[in-house]
Write a structure and sequence with these properties.
Strand order of the largest sheet: 4-3-2-1-5
CATH superfamily of the largest domain: Hypothetical protein YfhH like domains
Strand content: 15-25%
CATH topology of the largest domain: SH3 type barrels
Shape: globular
CATH class of the largest domain: Mainly Beta
Helix content: 25-40%
Radius of gyration: 15 Å
Mean pLDDT: 94
Number of domains: 2
Number of helices: 2
Low-confidence stretches: none
Oligomer: single chain
Number of strands: 5
Length: about 100
């Protein structure tokens, strides 16, 4: 039975990410877009568990990786930051902390 990311050590997470990146590369080469998206999401989640949620502060504004939007954190729950995007949206949403970068 597979372990949950929350139960893995940093070394196990790094090994998992390397394996997922290889699978994503193969899916991309074969043109299987839906599998590629699944592997990219899993990589994002595994990376979130390698970060310290305490490094992200409520009220802070962060750049969303791969987007021009910023994200204002209302609160942190596990490895998810709950808050609002700078662009008009449907309201509060949760993002894995691994997609948030210090605003430049």
């Amino acid at each position: 039975m597979d372990k949950r990311y929350s139960q893995m050590t940093p070394h196990e997470l790094q090994t998992e990410i390397a394996g997922l990146m290889e699978k994503a590369r193969k899916a991309e080469q074969m043109g299987i877009v839906n599998e590629l998206a699944v592997f990219e999401r899993k990589i994002t989640m595994a990376k979130a568990y390698m970060l310290n949620p305490e490094d992200f502060r409520p009220g802070g504004v962060y750049q969303i990786e791969g987007s021009d939007d910023t994200f204002r954190i209302d609160y942190i729950n596990g490895v998810f930051a709950w808050g609002h995007r700078s662009s008009p949206s449907d309201g509060e949403e949760a993002l894995p902390i691994s997609v948030l970068k210090e605003k430049k």
